[in-house]
Amino acid sequence: MLRKLLLGFGFAELAKPRPIIDACERIGLENPSATERRPQALRGARLEGLVFVWTLLRERDGSTVITALLGLAGTILVVLPRPIIELSQSLVDENTAELELKPWVVRAARLLGALYLLVVALSRPASGDSSPTDGTGA
C-alpha cells in the first residue's frame, strides 16, 4: 500500500510538478508569493518523481547508482539538512535572500530525507523473495 502511495506521488510529480512545488512553498516559506522560481525547478521536480518511480518499479537485486544517490541524499537530509535546504533553494529560486523559511523547515527536510530512505528500503526485494529471474525456470 505504501509503495503504491509513493508511486502515485512520483507519477504526480512527473505529470504536474507545479502544484507540488507550490504546496512546498506554502508549507515552508513565510512569504511564498515572493518566490522567483528558476526555469529548471520544474525539471528538478520531475527528475525527483522519475527517480521515485524508477526506484520503486525496477525489479533488480542489489544497489544501483541512482538508488545509492537517493539513499545518500536521504541520509544527508536526515543528519545535516541545512546545507541541502540552502542548495535546493538556490537551485529552485532566484531570490533566496528575500525568502523567509518557516521554523519547521529543518524538521520537514529531515522528514523528506526519511521519505527518500523509505523509497530506497521499499525498492529492495523482500528477504524471502530470492528466486532467480533469469527466465530459466530453475
Structure explained in plain terms:
The protein is mostly helical. It has one domain. It has six helices and no strands. Helix 4 (65-79) runs antiparallel to helix 6 (105-123). The longest helix has 19 residues, at 105-123. The chain is globular, with a radius of gyration of 17 Å. The relative contact order is 0.16.
Entry keywords:
mainly alpha; disordered C terminus
Describe, in short, the structure shown:
The chain has 6 helices and no strands.
SSE blueprint and pairings:
Blueprint: H1 2-15, H2 17-28, H3 40-57, H4 65-79, H5 81-92, H6 105-123
Helix pairs in contact: 1-3, 2-3, 3-6, 4-5, 4-6, 5-6
Summing up helix and strand content along with how strands pair, one would put the structural category as mainly alpha
Counting DSSP H or I runs of 4 or more residues, the number of helices is 6
The proportion of strand residues reads under 5%
Kindly provide the radius of gyration, computed on alpha-carbon positions and rounded to a whole number of angstroms. 17 Å
How far from one another are the termini? 30 Å
Oligomer: single chain
Largest sheet: none
User: How would you describe the shape?
Assistant: globular
Fraction of helical residues: 55-70%
Count of spatially separate domains: 1
What's the mean pLDDT score? 87
Low-confidence stretches: 131-138
How do the helices and strands follow one another from N- to C-terminus?
HHHHHH
Strands, count: 0
